[in-house]
Amino acid sequence: MPHQLLLFIHVTGVIVWVGGMVFAYFCLRPAAASTLEPPQRLPLWSAAFGRFFLLVRVAVAAILLSGGAMMYLRGFANAPIGWHVMLLLGLVMAAIFLYIDRMLYPKLRSHVEAAQWPQGAAVLNRIRQGVAVNLVLSVCTIAAALSAR
Ligand code: HEM
């Protein structure tokens, strides 16, 4: 597969993942917090994450596979340092997403189903912290990608 096609898949995945995190963190979170009480707000987040995390799973797989393929085709030893930094940060971001998706999100869903709002809010806050870390890492990763130009 030519480099341009791999890069297209890679950057499309990045847009879906990072763009979705920006929307959730900076738009939906303050809007939901100021207009909804926990019994409405937590089911909204649970339903929204259910859909978003499906997309992110596909995006993360596409980003890692296309990024790994571009590095393999260039040769790991010949790849600029920025690409290696991107690989490292990308793997950390994927691990944080996996933790949110596999560990925290099922807890949020079960608290919502049991109408346990304080416990659900505590889990939601941990998801928010994970997303905040990934947002900072994504800015660093994009900087690493562009530093190699
Ligand atoms: C396993 C993880 C990753 C690997 C191995 C990887 C590898 C690569 C490679 C080889 C390129 C091509 C660079 C070029 O053609 O100049 C690239 C481009 C890019 N990557 Fe990654 N990447 C990974 C994860 C990420 C993540 C998580 C992000 C963002 C959050 C990201 C953002 C970008 C951007 C914005 C470009 C376009 C850079 C440009 O065209 O100048 N990458 N990546």
Provide the descriptors you would attach to this structure in a database record.
149 residues; 90% helix
How would you summarize what this structure contains?
The chain has 149 residues and is mainly alpha-helical.
Please describe what this structure looks like.
The mean pLDDT is 97. The chain is built from 4 helices and no strands. It has one domain (3-147). The two termini are 21 Å apart. The longest helix has 37 residues, at 38-74. By secondary structure, the protein is an all-alpha fold. Helices cover 90% and strands 0% of the residues. It binds protoporphyrin IX containing FE. The site of protoporphyrin IX containing FE has 24 residues, from helix 1, helix 2, helix 3 and helix 4.
